[in-house]
Amino acid sequence: MKELELKYGCNPNQKPAKIYMKDGQLPITILNGKPGYINLLDAFNSWQLVKELKEATGMAAAASFKHVSPAGAAVCTPLDETLKKIYFVEGVELSDMATAYIRARGADRMSSYGDFVALSDECDEQTAEFLKREVSDGIIAPSYSEKALEILKSKRKGSYLVIQIDPQYIPHKQETKEVFGITFEQGRNDARITEELLREIPTAQKELPEEAKRDLLIALITLKYTQSNSVCYAKDGQAIGIGAGQQSRIHCTRLAGNKADIWFLRQHPKVLNLPFKEDIRRADRDNTIDVYISDDYDDVLRDGIWQAFFTEKPQVLTREEKQAWLEKLDGVSLGSDAFFPFGDNIERAHKSGVKYIAQAGGSVRDDNVIETCDKYGITMAFTGLRLFHH
Prior knowledge:
Layout: E1 3-5, E2 18-20, E3 28-32, H1 37-57, E4 61-66, E5 69-75, H2 81-86, H3 96-106, E6 115-119, H4 125-132, E7 136-141, H5 146-153, E8 161-165, E9 174-179, E10 182-187, H6 210-224, E11 230-235, E12 238-244, H7 249-265, H8 269-272, H9 282-293, H10 297-303, H11 319-326, E13 332-336, H12 344-351, E14 354-359, H13 366-376, E15 379-382
Parallel strand pairs: 6-7, 7-8, 13-14, 14-15
Antiparallel strand pairs: 1-2, 3-8, 4-5, 4-6, 9-10, 11-12, 11-13
């Protein structure tokens, strides 16, 4: 198949729409559903991300994509009991593929609502079962077990989009796109993200454990397919906060840091023991946890809205309790798709437990950034590689 007609372009009024190959056949097969323009942008970006994560780490990888940027990305490092609880998979033995997917989806569940999923390896039955219960638009993977495909085809009243991609497909070196009737052409960004990028360490602290190297690679590969400017916090084999598409780098760092903080606050004992009603929907539970963690929860208590979700009035998670809990967050890795222009980014990163950083370097204020890292004992590598993505 050289050409595939789409439902519409970015918006329903943008018709007709299609994808096609100038040479050769399309590397995908639509196993179920009808794709849209944004579906395929998410699919092709997310597939590249998980393919590169697998190549860099040797581990099964998954991504959760929304609007051409990842909401989460992860490899299959084991889940501890707390993470199993906040990811709603207690008491379950997980396959590698299911583990990676659950980590990717669990990083930022609100942003992952209605996502597009990418898997580096075959989608097995267990992964399909977990995916079936989530609100999602589609999935791309190199293959599907017979049972997994049957489960996915039943999702969304039979309209769930299932794409199989040829894992051996290699695109042309040159890529083009058209904007306002004008064609742009550039060399494809085929830069490999490996530990070689982490060798130049200008900070006083030089220690870079193997786990940190893995997490920095995850952060950098995630950023390679995130709309710029972008910053990614990673820990224990997964992204825990992604700040995408901001005009100011400090805003990326704050946005991603706030998401990392929420990820960690969800592990607070008060959050783990919230008295939810049994019939509350998954999305409502995620939204309620977000409100409970936020400073707006006092309004919820005052207005009596809590009665819609809880069997009894929960105790407030005070600002002091939140701060004390966040001070326990440590060993976080952070990647940036370009250099940090000021030390304020490091100050914000430090507040979310960042101990390891990989960024391009090359700012006229590199000395200030290095000095700020030294202030907090942070190890920082200069990769020399910018990863803008538009």
